[in-house]
Give the backbone structure.
Amino acid sequence: MRNILILFVFLFLAAVLDYKFGRIPNRITLSAYLTGIGYIACFYPDMLVIRILTSIAILLLLYLFFSMSMLGAGDIKLLMMISIFMEAKILAELILIAAMFSVVTAIARTIRNKKGVVDFLKVRVHMAVPIFISYCVILIKLYFGG
């Protein structure tokens, strides 16, 4: 239960900062990552290596999206941090839900744009917000069924 609260606080903070300033400070993601490692090392030491390897896999898999300017480095670091706290299956679900939320956000911004037609792929979405919303959806699903 503690890890849920720890992750919730860090994700909320990242979402607010990403929305307000357009970036997630490294000190937030690094602090959360190290907190997660410490938490897993204390309470689930047998899972530590798996979680670290999962976070490295996230980096390697999502680097392709970063190289195509589809995802920011802060977003990748945020997902790496989340992987320390979550099982890979739930993390994959979170990424899928966040992608759907970000597409909906991009469509809404494209429609709302007053300048006329905008290239849908160039619409900037602050991914920490859909990631935070997705985390909340997953918490509701896990704890209230569905």
Observations:
- The CA atoms of residues 40 and 48 lie 6 Å apart.
- The two ends are 19 Å apart (CA to CA).
- Residues 2-144 form one domain.
